[in-house]
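Encode chain A's predicted structure.
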Amino acid sequence: MEHIATTPFGGGRITARQFQRQRETAGRQEKLRAGEGGNDTGRADKWQLMRALTEARAAYGIGDRAISVLEALVSFTTTRELDGSAPIIVFPSNRELSVRTRGISPATIRRHLAALVEAGMIFRRDSANGKRFCRRDDNGVIEDAFGFDLAPLALRATEILEAAEAARAEERAIRALRSEVTLHQRDITKIIACALEEGRAGDWLDFKARLATMTTGLGRRMRRDLLAWRRDKLITLRAEVENAYLSSLSEREMSGNELQNEQHIQNTNTDHSFELNGQENTDGSVTISNLTVPEQKMAISLDRLTRICPQIADYTKDGIRSWNDFFAAADLARSMLGITPDAWRKAKAAMGEQTAAVVITVLLERGEAVRSPGGYLRNLTEKAQRAAFSIYPMLQALERSRA
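Encoded structure for chain A:
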């Protein structure tokens, strides 16, 4: 039979759209068999086609379980390639369909089959009694078959592959937008937190409240246009926050030259300088462990330093009573932090032993906030070698946090 049972068995109805699709499919098949298909061969690798349809399923209004049912139907074909130039009829039983769909119930399978027919992925080729079967000739060749026709799926291969590419492009755009939104939210949050911690002038609580209204409801399925709208709003807010923070900086902070204008931590204690642990040279430098470093005076007493950084006392047996005790404790803490002797030697050469020891005490106080103490110290050493490092901002930050 050239045209077999295009209408559904039982109470099911055929719609005008389904009838039109069947006529269009029959016309395309005639052209393909006559060699008039052009570049569109009506053929496709069935598993590549199923993957593409899975990616583009939203464009066709079919869900994951409908895809599973269609994949089960495709698995009943005997060749890897689907050729839509002729009907591709499969006739599995409900029981076998349920097995190949990992246990989906017959009622659910029927519902998804109807969705696939509605989406134009398959046609029903029902027998007179609604059974799915085939008739074979004496040589075992199939003469007639009744079940589901997969030819529409094969004939739409080009369209489905293009829809899958469009879906991937849309997904990439959404991921990029989501990443932008996340980065802007994170940066704004950290700038506001820094400003509040440093006591900067500005409407930081208002900025924080505005940010909170933009960070709610960022679901995994948020539409692209909504993500773009949120991104644009965050860009505007970020510009305001950054401008407010920069406006709160002093000229010294804006210049970045901390060595010329160090703000010493004041203390009424008259012990304003480190005791020098080494031999003082005629040029004012100090030789420590065969390393020559510039002499550095620090306007902070040992007592106040240990109050700001109390954890260093845990690395001594009898407490810190002198700068020599402090240096010994810093050297022990250095090894416990995993800082190599070479990095420690270079730090003392660039900063001086006093400053290097204070850096170690600060690293102890910051704890897990510094993931790689060795790398952090090497970075500060490089800055010290360029005369671009001062210990005072670190101590000031710790003192403010304790206050």
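Residues 170-249 form one domain.
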